[in-house]
């Protein structure tokens, strides 16, 4: 099936991208070449100007030296008498410099920080040269501005020699043969400097011409190479790619009758063409067999669905049987427990009547009746737990809300389990914080929770131990916090996660030793959840346990007042 063609987005092809890339590279390359060429040519021109300035300073120095060495000969007449002719080294040097400057356009200056001529004071560049001489340099040069034009400047010091001292040495202030006061210089001091100023227009013109020729030559070579590369890429890559793209488009549209074996390509492009051709052939084979494969897979899927349907029916039937069996079990337990509770209640009532009768009773009779009463109450508690478990499993347990006063509730618990605690020699105490309010809850379920927790604590506390039932109030969370603590056998840490499971005690031998059904704590947890509270336990093995129940005091359920449902 052919796919509908959508609107094609404008996108650049490889040719366009390659052209842009080459153009960018070309511009960047030209910029780099131009910068490098300019830098190198400027350095070369500056080197040439420096070399010429050095030679020129040496020639000026040689003229200066010549006058200095022949000063005595110049000032001696033919008869051998001294006759100062007014020609001396400084005058000769300045004269030669002036004439040279007039003929060449160069400027040669003799400068000094203590000049005998006002025009010989150093300017800014020459002052920087003097600073460099003070640091040990013997040359200072660079391109700077002079009289509004960029020029190359070169400054080198003139060191005082022994022959210079007769005009510039000691004593300071004495008039020398030229009529100027001596400066008191010493051999090796800087007596002045030669400053050479060279125009750079001719050099820069040569540099620009050189750069233009280099850039033009490079441009021609690069363009030629890029042209060759472009045609080579177009022939070896772009044309085969275009053919591959056309073939891929046909395959995408469902036309698998493509033949890529005759594409003129080399290397990786040829391998790609062969792989695409092989893929097209495999797709043709797959499409030819697809219909028969779909029929087979459809039949297999229908068979599998039929098996799943039968299994679902069987599972539903099994679930229905389990629900019926669970309901039968719960109803059986509820009926049996209810039928057992009625005669057991009568037995307990008669033991109460017997204990209150004024007739004399022997110690053995009293002990037997107390034993009957204790075991009867334990049995009644077990039956009540079984009934509660059956109601919870059947979902028939409803809340019966009323005003609960914890003083009355703890009194009822005291009457119910105090007898058992006294019989076992366990101290049972209660405490109620004064700020615990009267609140709305299910009085019967709260009593069942406290009775189970307290009887459980008494059961696992040795003779002489203590069990305490207390309640406090948390106004921030509006919760009554009931706490049942004992100093009994405690619970091992590994058993804590399972302590609220049904038919579970921390020690398997406890069923025999402590006569428990393992339902008490499970019932407590379920009742606490029904009241919207929470329960947790803190215990240390062989030191005791504390069960903490948080019950909300602002409970106001709409389903209140229904009874126990059984």
Query: Span from first to last CA?
Result: 69 Å
List low-pLDDT spans: 1-8, 506-514, 558-566
**Mean pLDDT across every amino acid position:** 77
Instruction: Supply Rg.
Output: 59 Å
- Physical arrangement of strands within the biggest beta sheet: 6-8-9-11-10
Class from secondary-structure proportions? alpha+beta
Shape: elongated
Helix content class: 55-70%
Q: Tell me how many strands there are.
A: 11
Summarize the structure.
By secondary structure, this protein is an alpha+beta fold.
Describe this structure in words.
56% of the residues lie in helices and 14% in strands. By secondary structure, it is of the alpha+beta class. Strands 6-8-9-11-10 form a 5-stranded mixed β-sheet, covered by helices on one side. A hairpin with a 2-residue loop joins strand 2 and strand 3. The longest helix has 90 residues, at 267-356. Mean pLDDT is 77; it is low at 1-8, 506-514 and 558-566.
Strand-helix topology:
Blueprint: H1 14-69, H2 71-74, H3 89-104, E1 107-111, H4 124-134, E2 140-146, E3 149-159, H5 165-168, E4 190-199, H6 201-252, H7 267-356, H8 363-394, E5 401-404, H9 406-423, E6 427-432, E7 439-442, H10 443-459, E8 466-474, E9 479-486, H11 510-513, H12 520-530, E10 534-540, E11 544-552
Parallel strand pairs: 6-8
Antiparallel strand pairs: 1-4, 2-3, 3-4, 5-7, 8-9, 9-11, 10-11
């Amino acid at each position: 099936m052919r796919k509908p063609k959508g609107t094609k987005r404008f996108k650049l092809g490889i040719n366009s991208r390659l052209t842009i890339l080459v153009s960018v590279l070309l511009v960047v390359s030209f910029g780099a070449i131009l910068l490098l060429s300019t830098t190198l040519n400027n350095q070369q021109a500056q080197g040439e100007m420096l070399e010429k300035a050095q030679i020129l300073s040496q020639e000026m120095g040689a003229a200066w030296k010549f006058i200095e060495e022949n000063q005595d000969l110049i000032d001696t007449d033919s008869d051998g008498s001294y006759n100062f002719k007014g020609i001396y080294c400084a005058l000769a040097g300045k004269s030669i410099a002036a004439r040279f400057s007039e003929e060449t356009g160069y400027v040669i200056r003799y400068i000094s920080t203590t000049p005998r001529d006002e025009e010989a004071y150093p300017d800014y560049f020459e002052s920087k040269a003097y600073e460099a001489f003070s640091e040990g340099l013997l040359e200072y040069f660079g391109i700077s501005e002079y009289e509004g034009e960029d020029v190359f400047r070169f400054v080198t010091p003139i060191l005082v020699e022994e022959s210079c001292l007769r005009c510039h040495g000691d004593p300071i202030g004495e008039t020398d043969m030229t009529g100027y006061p001596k400066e008191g210089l010493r051999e090796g001091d800087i007596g002045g400097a030669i400053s050479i100023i060279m125009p750079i227009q001719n050099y820069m013109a040569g540099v620009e011409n050189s750069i233009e020729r280099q850039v033009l030559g490079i441009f021609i070579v690069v363009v030629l190479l890029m042209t060759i590369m472009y045609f080579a890429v177009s022939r070896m890559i772009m044309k085969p790619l275009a053919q591959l793209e056309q073939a891929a488009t046909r395959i995408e549209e469902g036309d698998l009758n493509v033949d890529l074996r005759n594409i003129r390509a080399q290397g990786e492009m040829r391998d790609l063409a062969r792989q695409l051709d092989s893929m097209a052939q495999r797709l043709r084979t797959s499409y030819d067999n697809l219909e028969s494969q779909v029929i087979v897979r459809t039949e297999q899927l229908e068979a599998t669905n039929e098996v799943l349907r039968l299994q679902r029916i069987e599972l539903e039937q099994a679930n229905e049987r389990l629900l019926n069996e669970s309901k039968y079990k719960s109803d059986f337990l509820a009926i049996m427990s209810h039928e057992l509770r009625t005669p057991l209640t009568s037995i307990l009532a008669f033991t109460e009547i017997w204990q209150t009768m004024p007739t004399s009773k022997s110690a053995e009779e009293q002990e037997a009746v107390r034993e009957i009463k204790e075991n009867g109450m334990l049995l009644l508690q077990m039956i009540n737990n079984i009934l509660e478990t059956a109601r919870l499993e059947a979902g028939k347990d409803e809340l019966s809300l009323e005003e609960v006063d914890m003083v009355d509730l703890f009194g009822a618990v005291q009457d119910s389990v105090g007898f058992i605690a006294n019989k076992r020699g366990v101290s049972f105490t209660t405490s109620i914080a004064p700020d615990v309010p009267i609140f709305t809850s299910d009085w019967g379920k709260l009593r069942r929770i406290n009775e189970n927790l307290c009887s459980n604590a008494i059961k696992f506390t040795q003779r002489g131990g203590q069990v305490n039932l207390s309640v406090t109030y948390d106004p921030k969370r509006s919760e009554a916090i009931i706490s049942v603590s004992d100093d009994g056998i405690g619970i091992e840490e590994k058993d804590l996660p399972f302590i609220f499971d049904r038919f579970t005690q921390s020690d398997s031998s406890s069923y025999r030793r402590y006569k428990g059904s393992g339902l008490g704590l499970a019932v407590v947890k379920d009742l606490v959840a029904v009241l919207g509270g929470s329960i947790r336990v803190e215990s240390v093995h062989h030191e005791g346990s504390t069960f903490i129940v948080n019950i909300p005091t602002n409970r106001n359920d709409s389903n209140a007042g229904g009874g126990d449902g059984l």
